[in-house]
Amino acid sequence: MTSPARVRRRPRLRAGRRGLSVGFDSPALGRTVEVEVDGHRMWTTTVPESGGRSVLVPWPPVLHSHLAGEGVIVLRDQRSGVVLAEGRFAWPGSADRIGLAELAESGQIIDKWGKLTDAPSDELHRRLLGAMSEMLDDLRELGYTAAITGGTLLGAIREGRILAHDDDIDLLVYLGEAGPPDVSIASYALERSIRERGHEVIRHSDAHLQIMFAQPVERGLPAADVHVDLFLGFHDRGVYSQPIAVRGAFDPSRLLPLSEVRLEGAAVPSVADGEAWLALCYGDDWRTPDPAFRFRTPSATRRRFENWFGVYDLNRDFWERHIRLGRTRHWRRDATRMLAATEPGDRVIDLGCGDGTHAETLAAAGRDVLAVDYSRAAIAAASAREGVTAFRLNLADRRAVLGFIADELRRGGRRHFLISDVLASLTRETRANTFLLLRALLGGDSVALASFAVNPSFFYEHHRPDTWHLPLGWLREEASKAGLSVELVAHAVRPSSSGPRSVATVRIHSTKRPATPVREETR
Questions:
Q1: pTM of the model
Q2: Lowest mean pLDDT across 192-196, 297-301, 390-394
Q3: CB neighbours of 197 closer than 8 A, spacing ≥ 6?
Q4: How far apart, in whole angstroms, are the C-alpha atoms of residue 399 and residue 403?
């Protein structure tokens, strides 16, 4: 019988702001561990070699703004399942911050891109297989050359199944020899064909489409949607490119004719030499499982593809999560000010509507409201509100913006715009598209009110757009290039999801049309 004095104690884990500090009694040999919060796995990482000393497991960057609340955190050996270390975390929390325990309880994990997403499950994988089969059938009937690719191909060749932590299906649509402009044109033709078959399409770039498969309501609860990513691959002057990550030497004979591999017991199409493709994408060690793997696109490849095909879906995952977790803060004075500037029956476009709170207030007061956002969660929430019509529009996609302008001009009449807590969280290019929209649709007696944070957040995080800011001078300079003028209406300190912010409220109007004078306020 083992003496109690000889029982080895489990190493203690201390959770600090920099990461998890673990003191091992003996050298740790770079083990792969799963990090659990209150019993829920959140991410997988590798413990650095310790040499018998304490080691630091850093927080993934996406969690820096969620170090709040309290709970239990555990490091578990990924292979054996043995708990290597455990401890507690406790930090001050507030209504503005979503803590680690809340994220874990809601089923959030960190994916291979370092983003927070819903945890995969066997049921999710079953639905993914159904979506993949339907999408492959559609592409085949439409005359496209399509095959599994990316992590889906990796799982099929290495394990014969969907990888345990995968939450989507990756498909290649091969275009043959094509230049970047040809790829862009082809992507819009592909999108139109897929939409005609009843699918919802999210455009990430001119070479990456995401096809959404909404799930039916079961037992009174809606199941999570699943998606299939379509990546357009092509040869350009002998070099193979497949956004978002692959560019290099890959002879067409290694791609065509398509072969077949087994995935979850079914035969699915693959490129001719799947192993060579995996080496091109993941490196020569692709055969060795690495649960802590984080995909990093070479910077030169990323810059090339972004310049060729754009980036249309930046930060949408953040806003989807923000809406789903109910963490939107509303500057209600914006809706009140818009009501004072308009009359019952007036059309108001709530640009960047969030969960639709402002849109509902305006509709209840008799305004004809169109709530616009690019977050699917926001559109779903706004659509459920009384008297509100919601429309999905991605302001980063100029083609979509021009289509919206054309639809509004055909509709005719006067329209007003509310842009509450939006402009500071957009990139400069996306704001340029927004100003283009306003310049085209603002009439001389239209009201366009915008509010935005003008000072940096106390805890700025680049991957958190709600911590960004927009100085008034920057806005005026950018708007003037689009033929717009900006008048300050009010300035105040307001609460936000990133803490107290100094907020400017402005009226935007065309420099070629007279504007109604607005009294400046401060408080």
A1: 0.79
A2: 297-301
A3: 138
A4: 6
